[in-house]
Design brief:
By secondary structure, this protein is of the alpha/beta class. It has 14 helices and 20 strands. It has helices spanning 2-12, 17-22, 44-52, 104-116, 137-150, 162-171, 177-181, 183-204, 212-226, 233-242, 277-281, 313-322, 341-351, 421-434; strands at 31-36, 57-60, 69-73, 76-80, 93-96, 101-102, 126-129, 133-134, 230-231, 247-250, 288-296, 299-301, 335-337, 339-340, 355-359, 370-378, 381-383, 397-403, 438-442, 450-452. Strands 9-7-5-2-10-1-11-15-19-20 form a ten-stranded mixed sheet, with helices on both faces. Strand 3 (69-73) and strand 4 form a beta hairpin. The structure holds inosinic acid. The site of inosinic acid has 20 residues, from helix 6. Inosinic acid binds at residues 40-41, 66-68, 155-158, 160, 162-163, 252-253, 257, 266, 268-269, 302-303.
Amino acid sequence: MRYHLRVLRFAASYPPPSALAATTYSSPMPSLSVFGAQWGDEGKGKIIDLLSDRVDIVVRYQGGANAGHTVVVDGEKWVLHLIPSGILHEGKVNMIAAGVAIDPVALLGELDGLKERGVHVGPDRLRVAANAHVIFEQHKRIDALSERWKGAGRIGTTGRGIGPAYGDKAARTGLRMADLLDPDHCADRLRANLAEKNAVIARIHEEPPLPVDELVDRYSALGKRLAPYVADTGAELRAAERAGKRILFEGAQGIMLDIDHGTYPFVTSSNTGPGGIPSGAGVPPQMIGRSIGIAKAYCTRVGEGPFPSEIHGDEAERLRAAGHEYGTTTGRPRRAGHFDAVQVRYGLEISGATGWIMTKLDVLAGLGDLNVVVGYRLGDQRFDAYPAHLADINGLEMETETIPGWTEDISGIRDFDQLPETARAYVDRVEELVGVPIVMVSVGAERDAIIKRGEIFEPGWGAETVGATG
Ligand code: IMP
């Protein structure tokens, strides 16, 4: 009875419906989201670098140093793992938000590397979430040991401690950046975490335990160095939105590596698409305006797990060599395959993408006729939508369509109409199969190696095209 009364009183305190309608949230400056629409390595780094010119703040909201974003500026190559690619644009603020798992060793290594090459990376340019979880040595160690334990069933992780750190977050035994800044608090919590991890390392994996005192001292010192960058990034982002700032959310990995919607268990441990932004960055969902997916003109995957359009042998080797398909973070050769229209359509659909960018079209030159996956088959069942309900998509038969290839080098072309007819036909047909407009085609690693086809930016963001980008 008492419970019932309490519910009634609570319900009565809600505002009446008309007042609710009047308080509907509307974003004063919707932000832009860019995410990987395949299994990662779609070339997001270059695109985010290119778009950064038009934004005030670039935000990472998930993943960790497992990502590897390569950017080439004036022939100089930059590889970033944790820091958003916007750091290469003077005056832009870059944020590592709460949903990212931060390895302080990797972050400081990256900061030092940028400083050595003359990039200003002070706290005015880099903000790190106080409530982001920290990746410690024990997470990296257990990542490697549990892969060894799994044997043939291993995921093929990047070994950066991602799964174990997010595991601690969910188990509520992790430490956050704020914990790292308070030496006593950090020591207590780190000791408790290490006690459990060391038991696992020693008793299950039969390996020497990690040195507790040494790690407590090491991480307290790292915390001190990172302290100036640590902030309430969620509050800063919400305030920035109110002030009309243009915010770009940078997704890492790809939608097929999403922990909920990807090829589980062969996925990473975070929500990689725009769905991860509100919780990962601490902002209202309505703040996300346009979402733009990035997908290669073909497909690759690194690590184990289902890859329906995978090719093997010489054909795969030619594609891998032409596209320099070796992991940015681990150097592993990437598995290669045909463009899979069923998979990309799925990735764009669940992310609400209004457009997508096709990257590395230049790589396909000289590779002969091109196959594109248009449907999957299982016995006499045909799927033209990605079958996310199946426990395992391995073993599905691919239905492909063959499109004539081209031999010309297209990396210098900046105008869609100048492309060889066959290359244009490939882009048009893939766009038709996917059913979402291709707003840009990338034909090389350099910033300017792009062909514009449609609108990327939010209508309120000023100039209408990407023409202003450097
Ligand atoms: P983890 O994120 O290191 O746990 O690795 C899980 C899976 O995601 C493995 O198959 C990795 O190869 C893959 N993965 C993680 N990060 C990336 C990335 O940035 N690009 C491509 N694959 C990735």
